[in-house]
Design goal:
The complex is a heterodimer of chains A (505) and B (236).
Chain A lengths: L2 H18 L10 E18 L11 E13 L3 E10 L2 H5 L1 H5 L10 E5 L8 E7 L2 E7 L3 E12 L5 H12 L15 E2 L2 H6 E14 L4 E14 L4 E14 L4 E14 L2 E2 L21 H10 L1 E4 L3 E6 L2 E14 H9 L4 H14 L8 E17 L24 E5 L13 E3 L11 H16 L8 H26 L20
Parallel strand pairs in A: 7-8
Antiparallel strand pairs in A: 1-2, 1-17, 2-3, 3-4, 5-6, 6-7, 7-9, 9-10, 10-11, 11-12, 12-13, 12-19, 14-16, 15-16, 15-18, 16-17
Chain B lengths: L6 E10 L2 E11 L4 E6 L5 H8 L7 E6 L2 E2 L5 H7 L1 E4 L11 H7 L7 H11 L1 H5 L10 H13 L5 E5 L7 H16 L3 E6 L2 H7 L2 E6 L2 E6 L1 H14 L3
Parallel strand pairs in B: 3-8, 3-9, 6-7, 7-8
Antiparallel strand pairs in B: 1-2, 1-4, 4-5, 9-10
Helix pairs in contact in B: 4-6, 7-8, 8-9
Classes of the chains: A alpha+beta (505), B alpha/beta (236).
Chain lengths: 505, 236
């Protein structure tokens, strides 16, 4: 075997090895492409104050126990966890808001794929003992987690308590005599008066396997006190699981609410929720005095509907365990008014705790236990499958349908007694084909995905053929160049051209 | 032995930019013969070797190797075909040992053991110096090393450029004895030389270049007889 043959053989072997090597675009997955995200927050607070000159609604929001995982084919991925997340605008645009390039919002952990210096493959940040955030991603599995003992006020303000925690994040060594508490994260009195919670857990995960993409999110907390204890919940939990194999998606999820009390009185909670105050739904189980109390406070409690949507290989989920809307105008009036019902019921100590709420915006919405996700995937391109299975247009019936939307509201009833009862929303996975419109449209969507080659799923023979074609063109160009430059000028004597083996006579 | 000459040049021209150095060289090297190409400095001898070995393109003319037209062939192709050139200045790697220099010749596919055995058999001096850096050896020893490395590729046509440059006459005589031995083994040799007497002693044919042309060729005795006239009197 001469050297040229060895070179060609070596290049050929290298080419075949390259072609047989799994492409980066698909990682370990045979899916043509995918995009997935999941997020969860234990408590999501929205502040509506139209007076504020902010071009958004709500004008402000932040989350306690926030996690988010996103992944796209490529693959690229990001995991974010934050014990106290001020929203994407402030959280991700912190350096622009502060005018200090390079700085970032401190109460967060980040991981990215590909990894960066500020977002390594595995990240862990501990605020105080027992309260921490972790993130991890390898491109295939992306996970963000917040676990902690919750948040509480108890006279410790944000700067005094949380500031010490931030010092630990910044790497400052604790001074001798410093207290190392294994306790809920101390927050400002204003926030603590609005809501406090224990046992905070939030997890968001996106996992890409060989044949499917799975997105899950969970948010849970215990001993939640709202408005300084006026409303109490022993536990909340929301879960969401979505999967897609490129042709079909499924979504399942549930919300669990345990032990609702209002002013210490156990309340029954039905699947249609309870709304007290401005709206008309009135549950007989709630005593009239409590109804009056919530009305006075401007409080509205709703078991928010869980929204699930499946369209072919795409799914979305959005759910909350409980939504509490607080209009602070009545609250302010009640606090300022002499001998109001609120003061009579709560006493002076609670009224003092509620005093900071006067500083809040007119309307605050608390979403307890929030989970959401969206998922979309397309199958890998397989050569030859592009033309044979198109559904005839005649089978399409119906007009504009084609989107499967199923909304599940509330749960299956059940009575909550004091700290014990549970209300659980249905957990049945969503059917994907229930109407004629769906059966007609879904195959067309799949067909479109199959025709378009996904990134990294080009047929091997096509790549090999392109390489051979490029080599042939290169050889022809070399020959043409030689002709143009006279390198292959024929012999004046008519002898054959080439290079003989001189060792052979 | 074939009648086809191993090397035949017909009207070969070559230039460095606008300066034409070879102005129609005609030369023949019969198979198995030693041809001495003589000429003063600037006659175009080294350029001619560079053109033959593919290091420099010819602007015109025909180059035939073994009866085959080889215009445009690369140095690698010619080397694989059995053409080998020992350049002026020897071209050894001064910071490598003798043995390492010889190892480099194994790129042609010949086993190292065979290369070393043949080199040491032909040049026992190299065996004594095998661990010595090539740059620290004498000029004659470096020339031996250069020859040994060239022979490792089993050439059919050997181009030697100024074998005697910078060497003592006694050493030069010894090297040309070796050239004669190589020629006896069947290797065709084209040797370019300024010092005519040693080259003519081992040559079967001789040619003299002047001004980019071969101005005389023939038997060594004849060329030797006309050498003064050709070098200083001109014969064009």
């Amino acid at each position: 075997m001469n050297r040229r043959t060895k070179w060609i053989a070596g290049l050929g072997a290298a080419g075949l090895l390259t072609l047989s090597w799994p492409s980066a675009a698909t990682a370990d997955s045979s899916l043509g492409g995918y995009t997935a995200d999941s997020s969860a927050s234990v408590i999501h607070i929205e502040v509506y104050e139209p007076v504020l000159p902010l071009p958004s609604s709500p004008q402000g929001d932040f989350s306690i126990g926030y996690t988010s995982s996103t992944a796209d084919s490529g693959p690229t991925a990001r995991a974010l966890s934050s014990y106290l997340w001020p929203g994407t605008v402030i959280g991700d645009g912190f350096d622009q808001l502060t005018g200090k390039p390079g700085t970032s919002y401190p109460i967060q952990a980040n991981s990215r794929y590909p990894a960066t210096a500020s977002a390594p493959a595995k990240n862990k940040v501990q605020i105080t003992d027992g309260n921490g955030m972790t993130t991890a991603t390898d491109g295939n599995t992306t996970t963000a987690t917040v676990t902690g003992l919750g948040i509480a006020g108890k006279g410790v303000d944000l700067l005094g308590g949380l500031g010490a925690g931030l010092g630990q994040i910044a790497g400052k060594a604790p001074k001798p005599g410093d207290k190392t508490l294994s306790a809920p994260v101390p927050v400002s009195n204003t926030l603590a008066a609005l809501v406090s919670a224990k046992g905070v857990t939030s997890t968001s995960t996106v996992k890409v396997s060989d044949s499917k993409v799975t997105s899950t999110s969970t948010a849970a907390a215990a001993d939640i006190n709202i408005l300084g204890g006026v409303i109490g919940l022993s536990a909340i939990k929301v879960t969401n699981t979505e999967t897609s194999n490129g042709t079909k998606a499924t979504v399942a999820g549930s919300a669990t609410i345990g032990g609702l009390t209002i002013a210490g009185v156990p309340i029954s909670l039905g699947d249609k929720g309870i709304v007290i105050g401005k709206t008309a739904i009135k549950l007989p189980a709630i005593p009239a005095t409590l109804t009056s109390l919530l009305k006075t406070l401007g409080v509205e409690i709703q078991v928010a509907p869980i929204t699930k949507k499946v369209t072919g290989a795409t799914s979305t989920f959005n759910g909350q365990a409980l939504t509490i809307s607080i209009d602070t105008h009545p609250l302010k009036d009640a606090l300022n008014g002499p001998l109001s019902l609120l003061v009579n019921l709560l006493g002076s100590q609670a009224a003092t705790s509620l005093a900071p709420l006067i500083e809040l915006a007119p309307r605050v919405v608390l979403k307890l236990g929030e989970a959401s996700g969206s998922l979309s995937a397309s199958p890998a391109y397989v050569g030859g499958n592009g033309g044979g299975t198109t559904t005839p247009p005649s089978t399409t019936t119906g007009g504009g349908g084609g989107v499967t939307t199923t909304t599940t509201t509330g749960g299956g009833g059940g009575t909550i007694g004091g700290g014990g009862g549970l209300v659980t929303t249905p957990t049945t996975p969503m059917p994907t084909t229930t109407t004629p419109q769906q059966t007609a449209v879904t195959p067309q969507l799949q067909q479109t995905a199959a025709i378009l080659p996904g990134l990294g799923s080009m047929p091997r023979f096509l790549i090999l053929g392109a390489l051979l074609l490029a080599a042939a063109i290169g050889w022809l160009m070399q020959v043409a160049g030689g002709v143009l430059l006279g390198g292959t000028r024929t012999c004046a004597l008519g002898l054959r051209t080439g290079v003989p083996d001189l060792r052979k006579e | 032995m074939s009648d086809v000459p191993i090397l035949e040049l017909i009207g070969v021209r070559a230039a460095y930019g606008r300066i034409e150095v070879l102005r129609g060289v005609d030369l023949t090297v019969p198979r198995g013969a030693v041809v001495a190409l003589l000429g003063a400095n600037g006659a175009g001898k080294t350029t001619l070797l560079r053109v033959i070995s593919g290091l420099m393109p010819a602007s015109d003319g025909d180059i035939h190797l073994g009866g085959v037209h080889i215009s445009g062939a690369s140095p690698e192709e010619l080397t694989r075909a059995g053409l080998c050139m020992v350049p002026e200045g020897r071209g050894v790697f001064p910071n490598l040992t003798v043995e390492e220099n010889l190892w480099l010749a194994s790129y042609s596919g010949v086993p190292v053991e065979k290369i070393l055995a043949e080199a040491y058999a032909r040049f026992p001096r190299l065996k004594e110096r095998r661990r010595q850096l090539a740059g620290s050896m004498s000029g004659g020893e470096q020339q031996m090393l250069s020859l040994a490395r060239a022979l490792a590729s089993n050439p059919a046509l050997l181009l030697l450029d100024e074998l005697s440059m910078g060497l003592a006459p006694l050493i030069v005589e010894g090297l040309y004895d070796t050239v004669a031995e190589i020629a006896e083994s069947g290797v065709s040799i084209l040797v370019v030389e300024q010092f005519a007497s040693s080259a003519l002693r081992v040559a079967d044919y001789a040619a003299v270049m002047q001004g980019g042309r071969v101005v005389a060729s023939g038997e060594p005795a004849e060329i030797k007889h006309r050498l003064s006239e050709l070098y200083f009197g001109g014969a064009a």
